Every structure is written in structure tokens, then in C-alpha cells.
Amino acid sequence: MVKIQIGINMEFVRHHDLPFAAGVEKAAAMGYEFIEPMVHWGRELMSEAGYFHTISMFDDPRETRDICEKYKVRCSGVSAHTPLGRPDVSVNYLRSAILWAAEAGAPVVNTDEGPKAPFTSAEDDHVLMRYTLTHATRAAERRNILIGLEQHQQYSKSPAGLDRIFNLVKSSSLGINFDTGNAYLAGEDPYRWMAACRDRIVHVHAKDITVEHSQAERGKVTGTPVGCACGAGVIDWKEVINILKPVNRTICLSVECGTIDQAAASLSHLKSLL
Fold it and tell me: What pLDDT is stored for residue 225 in this prediction?
């Protein structure tokens, strides 16, 4: 029987101009016990000035762990999206994120294939993705970190496409970060898709989609940054939970929404179903 946790992706404070630590404080005050930070390389103005929620991997991951301990939350995973088909970027980036996550105490590193290079074929891209994922899984296996492949771009927008990427390498560290909203917007049945791959799911982006958003973009896009509050859109969260029930592992529903109010409403709705 699955053990379901409820967490919040730190993008919920992106439009509130709050730094990471303030976002963690907000999440804890609402009652969240898990958070999902987004990491990046280097330095940039907005997060350095305290107007953005991301964390540089140049910073000590133990400092992030200290912030989480201060507010009595834990990391469900790390958002480390990088173009897997561009190993000049993604090998070192993803490997750095895995090392960072291990130090920060985050058990999952989430990523996707990213936008493809304009000069490569689909066959080229899958060879390149195999190379990247081989390096990444080797690093992850040594540190007991799981990699969550998310459906988000041109190849992973269908069950067959996501499966093809997943099957490029054989590793106990490789799993799926299932994004409910992205699956729905791609035009697929998210419940059938989730049921088909649930034994490989290691993390879930709990993203709901408004009726208006669905009417405007379903079948036209491969994903969206954030959704609405869970329970305010088209996703049947009771069905999502029922699909996950037979899984014999812990899975976090990491809410992806755009505001503090939506985060609070999402937690209330999901708790009522659990």
C-alpha cells in the first residue's frame, strides 16, 4: 500500500517576489511538511537579491537542509530540469544536481528531455539522451538518489514517448515524476497513463488545470509551468490517489500552483481526500 505525502513545489511563491527561505516559512505555516526546491547553476540577480525562490548549486546544500530543519519540513525532491539531449549542458548539470540533492537530503531529482537542439534528428536525440542518462544514473545509484523523468516536451508528451526515454537505460535509480497537468494538456487520459506507469512513479507533480486553460490549450501544448489550486480544475484527485494505492512505496504529491492562496487551497483539498 502506498504512503502518500503532500508537498509543495516552491514555484508557488514565484509571483510573490519571495526568496527561498521565506517561501519555506510560508509553506510550513500552511501545514506543508514537504517542499520541492528548484536549483540552478551560477548566480543571477533575482534570487541573489531575494526576489526569487531558486537556489544556486554553488551554495552549500547543507544550508538548505538547515532552513528546512528550522521550519520542520523536508525536501520531497529537487526540480532540476535540463535538456537531456544536449549532453554538453545536461551531463554536468544533472550530475551536479544529484550530488547537491544527496547533501541536501532530497531523495528525488526531477528532470525532462527539455527543448531539443534544432540541428539533430529524433534518433540523434535519443542516443544523446542515453549518454546523459547513463552518466546521471551512475551518479544516482551511488548515492541512493532517484531520478524522476517528467512528461514535459516533444518526446515525452505521449505514453510511448516517455517509455522510450525511460527504456534508454536500465537502472534502479530511474523512475517517473508524473505530472498530472502536463499529461492532461498533452491531450492524453492522465488516469490511464498514470495507471500504466504507476510501478515506475517515484514522485508526482500535482498540477490541476482550469476549465478555461483546458479549452484554450489542451492538445496544443506539452506542458505548463504551474496549474491552479488542486480541486479547482479538471483533475480528479480521488482517482489519482486510488491509482497510486497499490504502489508499495512512498510517493509525494508535490503541488504545482502559482500563488500562496492556491497552495493553501490545494493542501486543504488533498488532505480531505487522504
Answer: 87
How high is the pLDDT of residue 197?
97
Cell numbers for 49, please give them.
537579491
Domain boundaries, the chain: 3-255+267-273
CATH homologous superfamily for the domain 3-255+267-273: Divalent-metal-dependent TIM barrel enzymes (3.20.20.150)
Query: Residue 76 has which C-alpha cell?
Result: 520531497
Residue 11 burial (10 A CB sphere; 0-12, 13-18, 19+): buried
Q: Are 113 and 85 in contact (CB under 8 A)?
A: yes
Count of C-beta atoms within a 10 Å radius of residue 89: 16
Q: Cell 512512498 appears where?
A: 250
Residue 83 is predicted with a pLDDT of: 97
Q: Whole-structure pTM over 0.90, yes or no?
A: yes
Low-confidence ranges of the chain (pLDDT < 50): none
Determine the pLDDT at residue 205: 98
